[in-house]
Amino acid sequence: MQQIQLRDAKATLSAVVDQARQGEPSIITRHGRPEAVLLGFEDWQRLSQVPSFGRLLMAAPLEDDDVAERQGGLRDAGF
Known about the structure:
The protein has 4 helices and 3 strands, in the order βααββαα. It is α+β, with helices and mostly antiparallel strands.
């Protein structure tokens, strides 16, 4: 992943977008600090559809006896 200063990204935006479309995202920096990432639309779609951990747990095909019940709290478990 390349880093490019904001002013350079502005000057070469078409080329930076072409690189992102080809799977080469760019980190846009301002005054040496990362400020944004430019990535291709397909990559953004794929990343934006990743389910949350909670949704993954809720979708898990668990049976009633798959998870053991615990008596007491975390102190009893040694935490």
